[in-house]
Amino acid sequence: MMKDGSKPATAHQVHRTARVALGEALRRGHVKRNVAKIAKGPRLSDEEIEPYSIEDAQRIMTEAEKDRNSARWAVALSLGLRQGEALALRWSDVDLDAKQLRVKWTALRPIYDHGCGGKCGRTPGFCPQKVRVNSFIGETKSRAGKRVIGLPDQLVALLRKHKALQAAERRRRQLWTEGDWVFAGTTGEPLNPNTDHHEWKALLRRAGVRESRLHDARHTAATMLLALAVPERAAMGVMGWSSTAMAARYQHMTDPIRRDIAERLGGLLWASGDDSSGDVASAVRAPA
What we know:
Layout: H1 8-27, H2 54-64, H3 70-79, H4 83-87, E1 94-95, E2 100-103, E3 105-107, E4 112-113, E5 131-132, E6 137-139, E7 147-150, H5 153-172, H6 193-207, H7 216-227, H8 232-239, H9 245-250, H10 255-269, H11 274-284
Antiparallel strand pairs: 1-2, 2-7, 3-6, 4-5
């Protein structure tokens, strides 16, 4: 797979899936051994991820105001919802008066089958008559993924505006498909994850910021929680993490955070004045 251009993480996931599947087949007596355990999966190295700065995040949201689903990107950058979680949101999950939303589901990537009986000679996804065979939404990634998140006042205002514009759009269109989706297509249908991905890329180009994955918006939101000194357990509740190890993976030390730490350290060690010096001595004095 990697020789054909796949990333190590993709090959690792395929290997892990095969190992688990064959393990279940072995347990049921369908195979005599799990050959996937013999094969060694690719070694994964942590990718260097640079979250967006506050200034870049603001530029992205300012440019996004020109889009139909502008609040989609404000939700991504401020709350750090996974793509599937954001696309699966319904208005019934959002309480604008209480200023909170509930994450319950995740959008699934579509799986298609031939609608032509295989006569087109293409893969099912490119069949002119393709038929989706899986549901649009499913369970969240983990149990911790089901959560309630508080909304900043500014995001509440954006969502109210978005809801009003969507209602006006619904009244204008005769072929509107009612699904109660917070972020819907032009006729009310749920957004396709691939379309959502390409819209993010186009938004970055228009905003004049560096290229990044859509998932990096989640890293940006997590790092903002670190900058705000939000306690780890509270950050886990917002981000939907099931383990504290995820904080180390998603929360990144940025230059502003480093400067803040350095300034506070300097204020502690090089505080001026007799009283301050006494406080410093007390703070760092080793216990007897």
